Queue: 3 jobs
Job 1
Amino acid sequence: RSGWAGKTRGLNLGGVRVARTAWGDMTEANKAKLIAGNQNTIKNEKPAAAIVPAESAAPKQEPIKNAEQPASADPALQNRDRGRAASVNQMQSIARNPDYMRLGPSRTPDSGAPMVFAVGGDTNKIAPSSFGANDIAVMSDGQRVPFRYAVVDASSVEPSNFADGATNPAFASVAPGTIKALNNGRTAGVRAAHEGSKAANYTAELLADQAHGVSPEAIRNTPNPMLVRVYAEQSNTGDMAAKSQGQGLGMSASERATQDAELMTADVLDKFAPGDIASAGNRDFVRAFVGKLAENELADMMDATGNLSQDGRRRIEAALLTAAYGKSDLVQELFESTDTDIKAIGNALKVMSGQWAAMRQAAKEGSIDPATDMTANLIEAVNIVRRSRAEGSSIAELAGQGDLMGGNYLSELSEGFLRIFYKGKNYDRARGGDKVIAALQEIVTSAMNTKAEAGLFGDSFKATPKQIVESARSKIDEENK
């Protein structure tokens, strides 16, 4: 929103337009109405300023019950793949030249000193004299997180990964007093800068700065000094990592898809209509998904006219693909690679992703027979095709090899999906993309017609997964005759 001042172009969701200059002045209730497509007049109201008593400005580090258990799952604190090249490059850049002006006092989590917390609320590892001023950080969703500046030994703060991308086992520790980083890249970078004797300028500017409130004496007495923002563990939410990210390192398509797939809940998928995501029939679906995003992500989803942008389309497609077929390198190949060896099959998976995701959700909820969720078999068949293309091996050969470790051969269901992709005894004739789509559509339709249990007297017919796949294959075979 910071770049919208003075512009008159608006955000249009389902016919509702709001001038970008007015967005920041809206109440949260009115923003919700906008996202929901409410057609009523939206009043511009200034949100009431929060009054924070001085004594409550610092986070109260009260012991947490059952401190031996982590307060939140690791994905809540690290939702990125810090081992990928882009992440390593970012951390190495900080390690070579840590810029205190970008690692100093700040009220936003995506810039400034790393935000950290102590497991169990035990901050005894930080000397009282090393604490400084109190302040508040504002997360991307508006959550206000009280914190207190402190200078600590950089090696005492645990990031999820080190600056070379290697995983840090200590990040998983649940021992009380473990200091964990919310901003892992900055933490790893400053740690590495001290280790490589590249932090002299950083330390000099840290000493000269009075804004953080930590005494120069305390800084001089701290080995490998690093300015941090200590907040209470109780402030962590299930999406803390996502809310701490703004203009920092962008996520890859597969990383973002993994995160966005969690937003493809039943109430969103129920609004999906087969066909183009940007069509009028999917306006409610797009609105429902966009309504779950943080405010600072809305601009990327829409173009200048307020319609779904190309980036927005690709993001939703990737999220649907992950929700449908699970987290795998398949999303990376289809959305990050310039070329793919499974173009026809990949396109069919994209086309069917919304319906397949809805079927999986129904199976998960138990409204249909859970056994009809054959995603694992579908992906196994897709991976055999990918491997065949990559290695130059025949599909027939790979399908008959079996697992050398366990001796397991391709299951009947996985073979059934291969037969949907290919004709011929030796899988030597690829089917057209339209045939693959038709077969997957038939499988989804049949699965959605099943019930979790048989009828009261056991007289309800329930097709088995094998029957569903064989029926879909038979139908596209008959169309070829």
Job 2
Amino acid sequence: EALLRKLWNSGLEMGASRLRTVPDCSSRTAAQAIPRREQIDELCAAGIAIPLDRDLFIHREAYEELVKATLDGLKAGESLDMAETKARTGFSRKYAIPFLNRMERDGWVKRDGDRRIVLKSEARSDSPSSKPALPRSPSSGLPNT
């Protein structure tokens, strides 16, 4: 619970704008404030965090919400481009690309040049992000562990 609280406070939370990177922790201050890679890996293994890229992570529930927002109103076979993705997620191109790449790895979309073709637009039970939601602690709003 202490690890999750530390990560939550440092920015690994459900808000779509709160993507976290794993920075160089060579300075003492950064090493104290930011969770170590091993801790992030534990959260990924537990299904709480999802890696978008080597050093970019997002809370599982935020990822699920962003996938829904990205695919909202689209049917299998339809496509979306970078501008649509940025508008639907609020991400800059820097974050939209790893997000779309993760969606592709999870089977939601397939890249076709500069566009992404929607493969499936409803929730899937075999997706890594489909683990059951953690119950929330009433006092802190953090998931109970």
Job 3
Amino acid sequence: MISDLRSIKKQNDLTACKELHASVVSVSICASDHVCGGVSSLITHSITSTLRTRESMALPDFQTIMLPLLRRISDGRDWAMRDVTRGIEDEFGLTTEERSAMLPSGYSRVIVNRVGWAKSYMKEAGLIQSVRRGFVKITEDGQKVLVSPPDRIDMKFLEQFPSFLAFRSRSSSEGDQVVEPEESESLVETTPDEQIETAYSALQAALIAELLDQILEMSDRFFEKLVVELLVAMGYGGSIADAGRAVGKSGDGGIDGVIKEDKLGLDVIVLQAKRWTSNAVGRPDIQAFVGSMEAYRANKGVFITTSTFSAPAYEYVKQIQRKISLIDGKMLAELMIDNGVGVSTYRAIHLKRLDTDYFVE
């Protein structure tokens, strides 16, 4: 299992996520004391591999959308972006599933995000203008492009327009890395939102692997302390002292006990945790755990392992009346990150966008 966990750094199933939904969005990247080592090469590899994986998707990239978008608004009238997006979906024959595909954050549909960026770049080139909130129209330069239209409008094509070159020059001078098409075709086919979140996902994957490696190197006593602090951070077990008294060693490298579900102790949760390195927790282990709950007249239980659970174990908990939560190594690390246990924030990036509500007279 440890080798599998360490290989997370090399996996290419990372996804992109939009975090520019609000006017100001804070992205906090957590890291253990030594997560930064080797991360630069990891990010580069993960981004490129992930974006290549997306090539199999039927959803068009934002550059492919540019020319169809310009043609769709070529009549010179004001167009609502929601109508433009719907027309793009129809033109590319997207299925219902493809149209409803969401960015991992759940804030926006993928196609809406890509149409938005296609519009933004052509606006910087002077081919499109915003007339009011949510509405665009073609410009005179945009009409000229369509007189003898190219096979494709992309970032390279837009470089013939001085306003777009000025825009890219401003971005470069402000310290942003401008990715040229010839340098990385896969990167330039994705929106800036997707590139940011792919890099963020790479960092998180590296952190998860590092957390699990670190946990397995620590003592049983430390593992007990970690579980107690995590449960209290999540709102269970009452105080650290209460949870600590309720949890004890199981004698096999793990811990077990009964903790309060809330600070008032109105209900209890039976806990078992195994700091295993390779063996998956199987159905017999879960059945024995469920049997032990009878002594406490408990209906809820949490089973934590640093390894994995077998498929029969997952199937078993679905079949019984008692509510059992199975937390494997990956989920354990994710919960630690979410609740600030064993990690610290070393960098915060604030991404801002125009607040159109402010500019209303």
